Predict the 3D structure of the following.
Amino acid sequence: MCDHHDILRSNNKDLQSFEKQFDRRHFLKKTSLGIGALALGSLLNTEKAWANVGSNMPLFNKNKQGLPHHLPKAKRIIYLFQSGGPSQLDLFDYKPKLVDMFGKDLPESVIGGQRLTGMSGSQSTLPVAPSSLKFKQYGESRAWVSEAMPYLSEVVDDLCFIKSMQTDQINHTPAVTFFQTGHQLPGRPSMGSWLSYGLGSDNDNLPTFITLVSKNGKGQPLKASLWGNGFLPTEHQGVQFRSGKDPVLYLNNPDNYDGNDRKKMLDYLGRLNNIQNDAYGDPEIQARMTQYEMAYRMQTSVPEVTDTSDEPDHIFELYGKDSRDAGTYAANCLMARKLLEKGVKFVQLFHQGWDQHIGCPGGVRNQSRKTDQATAALIKDLKQRGMLDDTLVVWGGEFGRTVYSQGQLTDKNYGRDHHPKAFTMWMAGAGVKPGFSYGETDDFSYNVVKDPVHVHDFHATLLHLFGIDHERLTFKHQGRRFRLTDVHGHVVKDLLT
Amino acid sequence: MTEVPDFVLFLGRFHPLVVHLPIGFLFFAFLLEWFGKHPDRKALKSAVPFALFLGFITALIACVLGYMLSLSGDYEVSMLDSHFYFGVVTTVIVLLAWLIRVDKLKLTVLNTAKSNISLLTLIVVLLSITGHYGGNLTHGSDYLTKYLPFTQKEQKTLPKIAKVEDAVIFDYLAQPIIEEKCISCHNSNKKKGGLSFQDSLSIFKGGKNGKVVVAGNAMESEMIKRVLLDPKHDDFMPPEGKTPLTEDEIFILKYWIDNAHANFSSKVSAVKTSDSMKHIASVFLGFEKMGHNKEVTLPKVSPVETHVLEELMAEGFNFRELVFNSNVYEVVLPNYNMDKGTKDLTLKLQKLANLKSNILWLYIEDNQLTDAHLEIINTFNNLEKLVVNRNQITDKGLKLLENHSNLLSLNIYNNNITDNCLESLMHMHKLQKVYAWQTAITEESLNKYQQEANFPEVILASY
C-alpha cells in the first residue's frame, strides 16, 4: 500500500515527517481493518468483493456470464412508456358488441369477483361504456386502430400487437415499477440496467441506458428507481437526459472555468481513488471512477448528440412540429433515434398523462395528438435507415382501463378506471412478427380468453430477443440469485419471427 | 362419496412415515430371536417381547392412519384392499405373538424356541407382502421391476418416422411428456385427485376438479392451467419436488389441445402448425438441433487469439461475440474511432481481414468508405449483414459484391448509387433486404426488378 504513497508524496520536509507518523499509525490500522473488511465482504458476497478483478478486461471477453446465450435479434431498444395506463378500449381493442350494452350494468360473471379499486368499487352501478371513437381496419394486416391515432394506422403492418397483456398491479406506482423492474416494490434493477449489466456498452462515450421524460407531464410522478440499477453495479443505472439547456445536469463547466486542466485533475483523482480501491476493494469506488471518466467524455459527446439542429427539415416534418420544441414527446423521439444511432443500447422514454378516470374520449384524443405522429415517425425513420431490423420498439402503459364507466356515463363522455387483467401493447422491429396480432380478450375487453401474456412473459421475451435466456442472467445479492423475471416468465415464441 | 374432513386426510398422510416404525421394530425382533439362538447371546432374547410390543402399537397406529389416507379415494380399490387386509392380519398376528411371548396367552405348545422363530419369520414375510402392496400403491406396480437387470424392457415402440409431419401428435409428442412428468401419480392404480392419464377414456373423464382436457381450449383445460400456475401456488403441477414441465413441453401440450383438438390420432401434417411449433417438435423428436430458429446455423470458425482482437481494438474496431464461445463476431467501426491507430481506412480493413471468416455482422457507417474498401470486405466470406450507409460507395463497388455467397442484408442508404446497381443486387442470391433510402434508385426501375423471383426487398423512403 505504501508504495502508492511514494507517487503522491511531496518533497516538503515537514509534510514528509508528518506523513511518516501518519503512515505508521495508519498502516497498522488500515491493514488490520482493511483486510478484515475485505474478508467480511467476501464472506457476505464473494462476487462483489472481487468485482474489480477483470473489470478492465476488453469488451469481447468481459462477459463472465457466458452471454449472449443465443444469436440476438435486437441490438438496441426504445421503450415508449405511456404512463398512466392508456385505454385499450379506445385505441386498439375494438369491441363492437358493446354498443348494444350501452349503460347496462357490467355482469358479475365478467367481473368474476375481482376486487375493484376504491375509486370505482363503491359505485352503485358499473355501466358499460362502449368507445365513442370510431375504429377502422388498416394495412394488409387489417389491424383495428381508432381515429385517435391516424399516423400510427399508416404503420400497422410493421407492428406486433399483444392484446392480452396482464399485470398483477392495479395502482400506478407499483404497476410501473413492476413493468420496469419485474417487482412491484422499488429496489430491483430495471430492464435497462439488466441489459447494460449483461451485454455491456456499444459506445464508451455515452451511457448504455438513457431515460427521457416528456416535459410538463402531469399525472402520477415518475421516479429514478424506475431506471435504477437496484443491486447491480452503479454504472448500470439509467441516466436521465432532461429537456432544455442542460440535458445532463452538472456536465457543463462552471462559469469562468475553461476546463483545460480537467483531464489532469481527473487523472489525479483517479490515482487517489485507486489507492482507496486497493485498500477497500469496494466496487462502488470502481463505479465512481468509471462514471467520472464517462462524465468527462460526455462533456463533448452529449452536446453533440442532443443537438438536433443539423437534422433536415423533412425529418422535423416527419416527427411533427412539436419536434422542434425540446423536451416534448416528439423531440424526445427524434433525440432517441440519434442516441440509438450513436450506439446507446436502451432508450427509455416516458410520457405521462394517460390516466383517464374522467373525460376518457377527450383525454385519449389529447394524448394521442401529442404522441401519435412522432411514434409513427420513429417507426418510419428507423425503417428507412435500416435500423428497425435490429432495434426493438415497444409501446405500452402499466395497465389498461375498465369497460365500465367511472363516474357518469353519457353519449359522448365517460371515465375509465385502472384495469390490470387485460390490456394492449405493441412491439415492432428486431425479431418480432410485423403486421401481427396476438391474444384475445372477451367481448368486454375485461378478461383474456386466448394466449395471455404476463409482464414476466414480456420480460422473458424481451431478453430473448437480445440473445439472453432470462433464467440464466442472474445476480447474487443478499444470499440469493436474482433474475429480471424472478421465478416466472415464459418466452412468447409465437411473437418471434 | 361423503366429504372427508381435511384433518383426517392431514393425519392420513403420516401413514407413509409411521409405517416404517413397525417394519423396523418387528424385523429387529426377528433378528434378536435369531442371534439369541447362540448360547453366548441368550440375553438378546429377553428384548424380543419389548420389540414385539412396540411393533404392535406402531402397527396399530399405522393401520388407523392408513385407513384415514385410504378415505381420500386416490387409490385403486382392489390393490388397496389387499394392502389393507394384509396390514390388519399382520397387526393381529403381531398381537398374538406378543401375547404368547409374555404368557398372557397360555399356549405352551407354541411357546417353544422353534415356534417362536417360525412365528417371527411369518411376521417378516407378512410385513414384506404388505409393504410391497403399499409401495405399489404409491409408486406404481412397475416401479420395483422397471430397472430389473436381464429382463426385456417392456416398451411401447412407435414405428420410426421420417419427418415431423408424419408424427401422430399424441403418441409421438404429448404422450412421452405425460409418461415422464404426470403418470407416476395419475395412473389407474394411483389416481391423485381422481385423475388418471392411463388411456384416452380416463383422460377425458378428468379428475375431481373437472375437465383435465377441453378439446380446442387449452386455457380452459385443467392440465394446462395447473402447469402454468405460479410455482409457489398450492395447485401447481407437478407438485413441489418433482421436475416441472419445460416451456417447450407446455407448448406441445397446448398445441395438442388447441390445434389438434385433443385428438388421439391427428398427425402434425393434418393440423395448423406454426413454424416455431414445428421447430420444437423437430427438436423433440431429434430431427433438429436445439436453438430457436432453424435457419440460424452459425459458421464453424477457428477461435481468434486475444492479442489479435486487442490490436484491432487499438485500431478503433469494437467487437462483440454474437454467441458466447461461437467465435463469430459483430464488428463496428464508429466514426469517432477513426483517429485511433492507423489513420487510413484501407490499412485498418487490411488488418481486419486477418479474421475475415469470423465476421458475421459489419458496421462501418459514415466513414468515407469507398469501392476499394468493398473489395477487401468482399473477402469476408461469412458476412451476413453489411451496414455501410452514409459513405461514398458507387454501383461499381456493389458489383464487386455480386458473388458474395452469404450476404443476407445490405444497408447502403445515402451512397452514390443508382438504378444500375439493381442488376448486381439480383445476383446476390441469398440477399433478402436492402436499405437504399437517399440514393438515386428510382421507384420505377425498382418495380421492374421486384417482379423477378429472388430479388431482395429494397426499402427506399418509407413515407
Remarks:
- Chain B is about 40% helix and 5% strand.
